[in-house]
Structure formats: structure tokens, C-alpha cells
Amino acid sequence: MRARAAGGIAALVLGAALWSAGPVSAAPTEGAHRTTITAPERASALRFWTDARLRSARNLDAPAAATTPSAAPGTTGSAGTSRTGEEVRVAPLPAPPSAPATASAPALAASDPAPWTGGGLISTTAGKVFFQNASGGTFACSATVANADNKSLVLTAGHCVVDAGTGEVYRNWVFIPGYANGNRPFGTFTASALFHLDQYVSTAGNANYDLAFARLAPLNGRSLGDTVGAQGIAFNSATGREVHSFGYGGSAAEGNGERLNHCSGVEYPDAGREGSTMWGIDCVQTGGSSGGSFLADFDAAGGGGYLVGNISVSAGSSEYHPVLGNEALDLYRRAGAA
To answer: From residue 130, how far is each of 9, 74, 121, 190, 337 by CA, in Å?
Structure first.
């Protein structure tokens, strides 16, 4: 993510609660772009990402967020995703016994990113994304496993999947859950499909739409969720509450992208950009943290919670996430059925 980018005011619209004990069933969607990756392309991606290439990948900064006209709370259009629907929550999927986390929960920092030493579900479901752009550059972002019907999804930032200026979808896209200091404790999962919102490209990178899902192919016959577990995810959920963010920031203070970092705080609307629908906290994680998680109802002891957004942009001492509204829910349903 970028240390200085525009933010904005988010709409506060609380839907009635609709609780789901399991993943949400699939439904058709408009405004979603799917890119399918073939088996030969996935095999090539696995060969491509040698340890040397992992080390040389640049931590990706977010592009500057485009300004947009303001909109009334709860509306859509150019302002961002709609939050007028009912809340939908999908519960976390516990990690299997073969992937335990043993560290005890740490004291939770309120602002500056600090190393996450608490173990738990977040230590297996957070990970690093690596990909290549059209000119051959290699880059790194963050992502988090989200529970879904196919047990194979990660939530990340739109700018970690597609170039909003050109519409170019990145290639050799892989996810390494539990990444730490170059280690791949659960292997390297390759993307079989990438999903982003058409609005992110049509608006030339409006950060309100800066979210994406990747569907990961099974590894050694097991799905991603069955290997490491999955975080819950919530759509049209309440804002203005305590959230926790996790990412692989690339600064020296954050471990140069080699460790998972953590922030927490009560989120607030970003008033820096007219027409925005983003919310954030007092923390700035740097390049490479893009796509990392914002979690509500986070259990520090168990490391599980509900994804309510992904790290997108920052301004001043704050970092912000797009709201997971109706468009994000439709994108999730499509990706979860892939």
C-alpha cells in the first residue's frame, strides 16, 4: 500500500442482521470481471516463483486514489459500493489440527504496526501474494483466506490483481499462507481464477472499489481452507467499531515484508476525499501490506474474526479499507462458486 494517498467519507448504513452458519450460496452478478488461469499457466507460475524471485519481488504501493463526486450515505453510483442490504456473515473455518498455532495472544497495539506473535487462525490464513505484470516486474502484496463454499478464496486489494489504468490482469499469481522469512509452511497455492469489480477499472482506480478475490487451486489434493482454515467474512456490516488489521509491510520497521504485522483501533470515516465510502484506523502499514485484512469481532486468543475489508490506501497517520457492500457480496458469491 502507499504511505500517502487520498481517502474519503464513508456512508454509515446499518442493515438488519442475517446470520449464516455456513458459506453463502452462489448467485449471478453484474459488474464482476473474472480471469481464468489454466493448468499449464498454474504449473508455470509454480516454476517461476523460486526463492530468489520471492526475495527480489517489490512490495507494491497502491496508486493514488481517484477523487469522485460526493454521494448521499447509502447510495452507489460513482461514490462506491452500496451498503443498503441486509448484513450477511459467514463464520470462520477453524484450521485443521495439522496446522496449529501455538503462541499466546500478545498485548494488542492501538496504532503503530507491530509484529504479530499471537499465533492462532490469523497466522495460518494471512499470507503473501506474488505476481508479475505485463512488463515483467515482480511484486508482492498481502491477502487473507475467506471462508466460502469452495474453501478456496482469498480477499485482497484490487490493485494487487489488476492495473486499473490499463485493465491488465496480473499473471503468475500465487498465494503463500503463513509466509514468514521466506518460508512456505503450507506450500504455494496458485490462482485458478481472479475476480475484480469492473468499476475499479472503469473509474481508473477509485479506491472505493479496490477489492478482489482469488480462487486458489487445490494443492496436493487439498483445498486452501482444508489446509489452513479460513477467516469469516461479513457484508453490509456495521462500521465505526473496533477492527484489527494485518499485513506484510515492506519497511525496515515492519520486517521488510518478511513477517506479519498487526494494528487495531476503532475505525472512523476517512474525510480526506470527496465521495469516498472508506473507513480506517490510526495506523499506516507500508508497501506490501496492500490487500491485508481488516477484521471485526476479532478473538485475539484464537486469531479468528470476520473480514470487513482489505488494506487499500492511507493518508496521514491512517489506513483505510473499502466497504464490503452489495457489489462485494455479489463478487464473493461468484468467486465462491468457481
So the answer is: 31, 35, 22, 10, 24
* Cβ atoms of 108 and 264 closer than 8 Å: yes
**Do the bridges between strand 138-146 and strand 126-132 make them parallel or antiparallel, or are there none, so unpaired?**
antiparallel
Quick one: cell of 253? 520497521
Answer yes or no: are the C-beta atoms of 172 and 132 closer than 8 Å. yes
Which residue did the predictor score with more confidence, 331 or 99? 331
pTM over 0.70: yes
Amino acid at position 168, single letter: E
Q: What is the pLDDT of residues 78-94, one digit of tens each?
A: 345 656 688 999 989 99
Residue pair 127/141 in contact by the 8 Å Cβ criterion = no
What is the per-residue pLDDT across 98-120, written as a single tens digit (0 to 9) for each? 765 544 444 444 458 999 999 99
Sign of the C-alpha dihedral computed for residues 16, 21, 25 and 28 taken in this order: positive
CB atoms < 10 A from the CB of 338, how many?
Answer: 18
Cα→Cα distances 78→36, 69, 205, 244, Å: 27, 7, 11, 28
Q: Among all chains, which residue has been given the C-alpha cell 507460475?
A: 45
- Strand pairing category for 17-20 and 87-90: parallel
Report which of 113, 162, 83, 146 is spatially closest to residue 293, judged by C-alpha positions: 146
Answer whether 289's CB lies under 8 Å from 1's CB: yes
User: Is 64 a residue whose pLDDT tops 70?
Assistant: no
Residue 159: phi and psi, rounded to 5, are -75, 0
- Single-letter residue type at 179: Y
